[in-house]
Amino acid sequence: MEPVPTHAARTTLTQIMTSLDVNLLGTVHGGVVMRMVDSVAGAAAGRHSKGPAVTVSMDEMVFLRPVRVGDLIHAHAQVNWAGRTSMEVGVRVTSERWNEIDPPVHVASAYLVFVAVDDDGRPRAVPPVMTESDEDRRRFTEAQIRRQHRLARRDEIDRLRAGQG
Prior knowledge:
Elements: E1 4-5, H1 6-9, E2 11-16, H2 30-49, E3 53-63, E4 71-82, E5 86-97, E6 105-116, E7 129-130, H3 134-161
Parallel strand pairs: 1-7
Antiparallel strand pairs: 2-4, 3-6, 4-5, 5-6
Protein backbone atom coordinates (compact mmCIF):
# COMPACT_ATOMS: atom_id res chain seq x y z
CA MET A 1 0.00 0.00 0.00
CA GLU A 2 1.22 3.47 -0.84
CA PRO A 3 1.86 5.70 2.20
CA VAL A 4 -0.57 8.59 2.71
CA PRO A 5 1.00 12.00 3.43
CA THR A 6 -0.14 13.56 6.69
CA HIS A 7 -1.71 16.57 4.97
CA ALA A 8 -4.06 14.37 2.91
CA ALA A 9 -6.22 13.29 5.86
CA ARG A 10 -6.08 16.43 8.02
CA THR A 11 -9.60 17.47 8.87
CA THR A 12 -11.20 20.37 10.75
CA LEU A 13 -14.73 20.72 12.12
CA THR A 14 -16.04 24.03 13.42
CA GLN A 15 -19.18 24.60 15.44
CA ILE A 16 -20.66 27.49 17.40
CA MET A 17 -21.63 26.59 20.94
CA THR A 18 -25.19 27.42 21.99
CA SER A 19 -27.29 27.22 25.13
CA LEU A 20 -28.15 23.63 24.14
CA ASP A 21 -24.49 22.65 24.74
CA VAL A 22 -24.07 23.79 28.35
CA ASN A 23 -23.71 21.85 31.59
CA LEU A 24 -25.02 22.79 35.04
CA LEU A 25 -22.10 25.21 35.50
CA GLY A 26 -23.06 27.21 32.42
CA THR A 27 -20.04 26.18 30.36
CA VAL A 28 -20.03 23.80 27.42
CA HIS A 29 -20.43 20.18 28.49
CA GLY A 30 -17.26 18.12 28.05
CA GLY A 31 -19.32 15.45 26.30
CA VAL A 32 -20.23 17.92 23.55
CA VAL A 33 -16.54 18.58 22.94
CA MET A 34 -15.77 14.84 23.11
CA ARG A 35 -18.41 14.06 20.49
CA MET A 36 -16.93 16.66 18.17
CA VAL A 37 -13.45 15.24 18.80
CA ASP A 38 -14.64 11.72 17.96
CA SER A 39 -16.37 12.96 14.80
CA VAL A 40 -13.39 14.85 13.42
CA ALA A 41 -11.00 12.04 14.35
CA GLY A 42 -13.26 9.53 12.60
CA ALA A 43 -13.30 11.69 9.48
CA ALA A 44 -9.49 11.90 9.46
CA ALA A 45 -9.17 8.12 10.02
CA GLY A 46 -11.65 7.43 7.22
CA ARG A 47 -9.82 9.76 4.85
CA HIS A 48 -6.46 8.18 5.65
CA SER A 49 -7.73 4.61 5.33
CA LYS A 50 -9.97 5.43 2.35
CA GLY A 51 -13.03 3.88 3.96
CA PRO A 52 -14.87 3.32 7.21
CA ALA A 53 -13.01 3.32 10.50
CA VAL A 54 -14.38 2.83 14.01
CA THR A 55 -13.26 4.23 17.35
CA VAL A 56 -11.42 1.65 19.45
CA SER A 57 -10.30 3.89 22.28
CA MET A 58 -9.82 7.41 23.42
CA ASP A 59 -6.32 7.19 24.79
CA GLU A 60 -6.30 10.59 26.40
CA MET A 61 -8.59 13.62 26.59
CA VAL A 62 -7.33 16.73 28.32
CA PHE A 63 -9.52 19.78 28.92
CA LEU A 64 -7.37 22.87 29.37
CA ARG A 65 -9.92 25.72 29.54
CA PRO A 66 -13.69 26.02 29.67
CA VAL A 67 -15.67 26.70 26.50
CA ARG A 68 -18.57 29.17 26.70
CA VAL A 69 -21.81 29.72 24.88
CA GLY A 70 -21.04 31.85 21.82
CA ASP A 71 -17.61 30.34 21.29
CA LEU A 72 -16.64 28.93 17.93
CA ILE A 73 -14.76 25.72 18.55
CA HIS A 74 -12.47 24.25 15.95
CA ALA A 75 -11.41 20.61 16.18
CA HIS A 76 -8.32 19.84 14.07
CA ALA A 77 -7.45 16.17 13.48
CA GLN A 78 -4.45 14.40 11.96
CA VAL A 79 -3.46 10.75 11.68
CA ASN A 80 -0.23 10.56 13.66
CA TRP A 81 0.61 6.89 13.16
CA ALA A 82 -0.76 3.84 11.34
CA GLY A 83 -0.14 0.16 11.90
CA ARG A 84 -1.54 -2.81 10.03
CA THR A 85 -5.24 -2.05 10.67
CA SER A 86 -5.20 0.68 13.32
CA MET A 87 -4.40 4.38 13.40
CA GLU A 88 -3.78 6.95 16.10
CA VAL A 89 -5.46 10.28 15.47
CA GLY A 90 -4.49 13.41 17.37
CA VAL A 91 -7.07 16.17 17.85
CA ARG A 92 -6.43 19.73 18.97
CA VAL A 93 -9.45 21.84 19.93
CA THR A 94 -9.30 25.62 19.88
CA SER A 95 -11.92 28.18 20.84
CA GLU A 96 -12.61 31.78 19.93
CA ARG A 97 -15.46 34.20 20.57
CA TRP A 98 -17.82 34.36 17.62
CA ASN A 99 -17.78 38.16 17.58
CA GLU A 100 -14.14 38.94 18.38
CA ILE A 101 -10.93 38.80 16.36
CA ASP A 102 -8.63 37.54 19.10
CA PRO A 103 -6.59 34.49 18.15
CA PRO A 104 -8.05 31.07 19.00
CA VAL A 105 -7.12 29.56 22.37
CA HIS A 106 -6.13 25.91 22.85
CA VAL A 107 -8.90 24.38 25.01
CA ALA A 108 -8.52 20.60 24.68
CA SER A 109 -6.44 17.80 23.17
CA ALA A 110 -7.11 14.13 22.60
CA TYR A 111 -5.60 10.98 21.13
CA LEU A 112 -7.90 8.32 19.71
CA VAL A 113 -7.29 4.91 18.18
CA PHE A 114 -9.33 3.78 15.18
CA VAL A 115 -9.48 0.52 13.29
CA ALA A 116 -10.39 0.47 9.61
CA VAL A 117 -13.19 -1.98 8.85
CA ASP A 118 -14.57 -3.66 5.75
CA ASP A 119 -18.24 -4.02 4.79
CA ASP A 120 -18.62 -6.92 7.25
CA GLY A 121 -17.08 -4.97 10.13
CA ARG A 122 -13.81 -6.91 10.07
CA PRO A 123 -10.47 -5.09 10.38
CA ARG A 124 -8.85 -4.20 7.07
CA ALA A 125 -5.36 -3.01 6.14
CA VAL A 126 -4.51 0.69 6.21
CA PRO A 127 -1.74 2.54 4.41
CA PRO A 128 1.29 3.75 6.34
CA VAL A 129 1.68 7.40 7.33
CA MET A 130 4.10 9.50 5.27
CA THR A 131 5.42 12.22 7.58
CA GLU A 132 6.12 15.56 5.92
CA SER A 133 7.72 17.73 8.59
CA ASP A 134 9.68 17.64 11.83
CA GLU A 135 6.36 18.18 13.65
CA ASP A 136 4.85 15.15 11.88
CA ARG A 137 7.88 13.04 12.78
CA ARG A 138 7.61 14.13 16.44
CA ARG A 139 3.88 13.23 16.47
CA PHE A 140 4.63 9.85 14.83
CA THR A 141 7.31 9.00 17.43
CA GLU A 142 5.11 10.09 20.35
CA ALA A 143 2.25 7.98 18.94
CA GLN A 144 4.53 4.94 18.94
CA ILE A 145 5.33 5.58 22.61
CA ARG A 146 1.62 5.88 23.48
CA ARG A 147 0.94 2.62 21.60
CA GLN A 148 3.69 0.81 23.55
CA HIS A 149 2.18 2.11 26.80
CA ARG A 150 -1.35 1.04 25.79
CA LEU A 151 -0.13 -2.47 24.95
CA ALA A 152 1.96 -2.76 28.12
CA ARG A 153 -0.99 -1.57 30.25
CA ARG A 154 -3.31 -4.09 28.57
CA ASP A 155 -0.82 -6.92 29.08
CA GLU A 156 -0.32 -6.01 32.75
CA ILE A 157 -4.08 -5.90 33.38
CA ASP A 158 -4.52 -9.24 31.60
CA ARG A 159 -1.80 -10.78 33.82
CA LEU A 160 -3.43 -9.37 36.94
CA ARG A 161 -6.85 -10.73 35.97
CA ALA A 162 -5.31 -14.13 35.22
CA GLY A 163 -3.92 -14.18 38.78
CA GLN A 164 -0.32 -13.76 37.71
CA GLY A 165 0.20 -10.21 38.97
